[in-house]
From TrEMBL:
Residues 103-154 form the RNA polymerase sigma factor 70 region 4 type domain. GO terms for molecular function: DNA binding; sigma factor activity. The keyword Transmembrane does not apply. This is RNA polymerase sigma-70 factor. Residues 7-70 form the RNA polymerase sigma-70 region domain. The lineage of its organism: Bacteria, Bacillati, Actinomycetota, Actinomycetes, Kitasatosporales.
């Protein structure tokens, strides 16, 4: 297989790993570009297992980026959310993949150290062995096992119950959008769980709540306020799947204005993620192919 063919074949897997480690499609693309340059400088005939080799290269490049991003995000204005990616409906059929790229899980991963994040993503999401991960991140297998245990305990203590996108969830989103457009606060509150949490990301470049908003009444009032100021006759609202979750995107004048991703449990919205940062909305029209490759069984 030619060198370009091997990279192209595994590109969805490589992008998925980079995105889950970085929380940014733009940074993941940068990592893939850097990794491709390194791959193109190698004689393919000398690489016995191209997939394993490429995963190792991408992991190391993503780790380098992640250490830089950690410092940058400490100065981020307001709440930070991962860059939303439009996912094909089939992603929601893979429960592990859908949960791993969900907004809630990505926020939990953000609280891990770079090494913990890499180990958790590679082992618990992609099924790589501790030995394979040790070779990828330059640590001993014993150390990787310790990191994996620590990261898994941290994630399990903070993870929320996840339900992927479904027909029932999309109907809840439709009712939510109708209530927001017509200004029916009680209808909105009926769709929101009592302890619903809304997180908004404006990045200091668009109007957004600086801190999470909790509670159905508070979230409903905020949503109606935003709807009154942002929805016009020219607004087009599109429903789609983002990060394996039901979502809606508002487009004004051909440019995306906001994106809502919904976390829905038992027919009610328990998490609402609002993206307003224009830098993170620019690429939200493209569907991102995600892949976990050949998988091992889930190991909780």
């Amino acid at each position: 297989m030619a060198e370009g063919d091997a990279f192209t074949e595994h590109r969805p897997l490589l992008f998925t790993i980079a995105y889950e480690m970085l929380g940014s499609a733009a940074d993941a693309e940068d990592v893939l570009q850097e990794s491709y340059l390194r791959w193109s400088a190698v004689d393919p005939a000398t690489v016995e297992h191209p997939r394993a080799y490429l995963v190792r290269v991408v992991t190391r490049q993503a780790l380098n980026h992640l250490r830089t991003l950690k410092a940058r995000r400490e100065d981020y204005v307001g709440s930070w959310l991962p860059e939303p990616i439009r996912t094909a409906p089939g992603v929601s059929e893979d429960a592990i993949l859908a949960e791993s790229v969900s907004m809630a899980m990505m926020l939990v991963l953000e609280t891990l150290s770079p090494a913990e994040r890499a180990v958790f993503v590679l082992h618990d999401v992609f099924g790589y062995t501790h030995g394979e991960i040790a070779a990828s991140i330059g640590k001993t297998e014993v150390t990787v096992r310790q990191i994996a245990h620590r990261a898994r305990r941290h994630v399990h203590a903070r993870r929320r119950r996840f339900e992927p996108d479904s027909g029932a969830a999309r109907k809840v989103v439709q009712r939510f959008l109708l209530a927001a457009q017509t200004g029916e606060i009680q209808a909105l509150m009926d769709l929101l769980a009592p302890d619903v949490v809304q997180v908004s990301d404006g990045g200091g470049k668009a109007t957004a709540a600086r801190h999470p908003i909790t509670g159905s009444a508070e979230v409903a009032r905020y949503v109606l306020g935003v709807a009154r100021t942002s929805l016009t006759a020219a607004t087009r609202i599109e429903q789609a799947t983002y990060n394996g979750m039901p979502a809606a995107r508002s487009v004004n004048g051909g440019e995306p204005d906001w994106l809502l991703a919904f976390e829905i449990h038992d027919g009610r919205i328990s998490g609402l993620y609002v993206m307003r940062n224009p830098d993170k909305l620019r690429r939200t029209d493209a569907v991102r192919p995600l892949d976990r490759g050949e998988l091992q069984p889930w190991k909780p």
